[in-house]
Amino acid sequence: MALPLNYSFRNALVRWRSTIATVLGIALVVFVFVLLQSLAAGIEKSSSNTGDPRNIMVVRKGSTAESASLISRQTLTEIRYFEEIARNENGEPIISADVLVLASLPRRDNSGEANVLLRGVTARGMELRPQVKLAAGRWFEAGKREIVVSAKLAKRFANFGIGQSFKTGSATFTVVGWLDGGGSAFDSECWLDADECRSTFERDMYSSFLIRPTDEAAGEKLITRIEADRRFKLKAEKEVEYYRKQTMTAAPIKWLGGFLAVMMSVGAVFAAMNTMYAAVGARTREIGTLRVLGFRRRAVVAALLLEGGLLALVGGVLGCAIAFYWNGYTTATMGMETFSEIVFEFRVTPKLVLEGLAFAVIVGLIGTLFPAIRAARLPVISALKSI
Amino acid sequence: MSANIVTIRNLSKIYQQGDINVTALDNISLDIASGEFLALMGPSGSGKSTLLHIIAGIDRPTNGECRVQDIDVAKLNESQLADWRNQNVGFVFQTFNLIPVLTAYENVELPLLLTRMNRAERRKQVEIALEIVGLADRAKHLPKQLSGGQEQRVAIARALVTDPALVVADEPTGNLDSHSAQEVLGVLRTLSRDAGKTVIMVTHDPKAAAFGSRQIHLEKGELSK
Fold first, then answer.
1. Fold exhibited by the domain B35-60+77-223
2. Tens digit of pLDDT for each residue in A229-274?
3. Per-domain boundaries in chain A
4. Which of A177, A221, A322, B89 is 20 to 30 A from A328, comparing alpha carbons?
5. How far apart are CA B197 and CA B215, in angstroms?
6. Where are the domains of chain B?
7. Which residues of chain B neighbour A384 with C-beta distances below 8 Å?
């Protein structure tokens, strides 16, 4: 038979100073764990949220990202009339040959420059990405040195206000609009006319093709056909798949989150252990009395574990609550695939909250286990004689 | 007097303190009748508390036999001993040993949590026990809200709530003023005389011992009288 819950609960309340210290210690660990994992989740969400399942993305074989890919104009000419590619009402193949360029631009807070991804895009490219919408202003017009920047990037870079201009490459561009990528990777891009992009940055090659096949089967056939043709040396896959794999940036953050959490949890385990050793030390005679009354060792261990677990759970809830304050907060980091600034939101998901709470309880239980076992192993007579 | 509830034969307890053997009890034989109120006296270090602990099943003898209700207590394992203590022995300590975070009611209820009684049955038993010690109106008080005498009476209620045949009390008046001591001793005597419980009380105090129906003295681990 277990000791009443009141026993564990009230004991935690009675020594409120050490209880608060333990709760705060565990809350800090859980906060760091959940916050860093929510960063990684935000980056992953941004990648996985990008693309249309019908579209096929084509890049040079071996390139890890669009910006590192080069495809000749000759290749475009050869591929664009493949019968697997759908055509619009004007009979034109729905294929967009994009040019991606990295531009180093000054940040708004004068903290130096950072790389921004500029996408030279065609009208077809905009049709193929309906999730990208205009948030303010208007779309660019070809030949006028106009550019549309991400609304989220506009908050981070200088001269990104509508009507403002900035110089990059051989030209000065005027910002005429802000785009909203709907939480996708396009929120980290600036769009301009593809031909203008190529001429400004003296690019003779394209970076990628985005293609709409006639149907699912045609898509599969197109992928096989492009990849099998040795002349092209291209890699083709579904657009959504391509972006889903762009999670390299999240990996080190996840690793760092895990590493920091483990390191800090060692400290938290010792803090919990210290609290519980002190609690057990002060209650040795009480534990002896419980044993005399007939409570078995395991009942004493269970009561102490419950007490430690309870403290840790409160710490976990607090840590998650503080981390949740940042949920939806937009920030940016350097993307490991593109080496450009990528913006994303902290995403404290229910799964992360559950992981944070489980993590807290495990820390609490490990910290309590040794003091609890020590208390239970003490001979009754020694426990009773304790002062 | 009825049949013996405790039978002790050739009981010894030797403690090891470093390289030295200390004899706490030396070849003791003793019978305690059911319903007796036995006062166990002696100076500090005479072995009286050790004898009480062995009878109550919280310590084990080095040699000899201690049978309580015909059970050789020393032969029970830890878990069996825990159950046996819960069902057969009520404890009263010098320092009361109430659980500070639990109310008087909850403290008295503790031993009953190990029985198969339901909540209503437990409530009835606890109320009776608190009534016997005259503290029914203090059920919701925490130990720190009670006087020393009241705390000890709560401890007595906890000792008798499971209706044990044997109540052991180790210096139950040692921390009390004379008025409270009289009250506590009165309750113990009532338990023996009116409820038929066997009470074994360790005490230094001859006035407290006088409440017992029999007194025995220990000196250097041996019965002296």
1. Rossmann fold (3.40.50)
2. 888 889 999 988 888 777 666 677 777 777 877 787 787 778 777 7
3. 5-48+248-385, 62-232
4. A177
5. 17
6. 35-60+77-223
7. 58, 93, 97
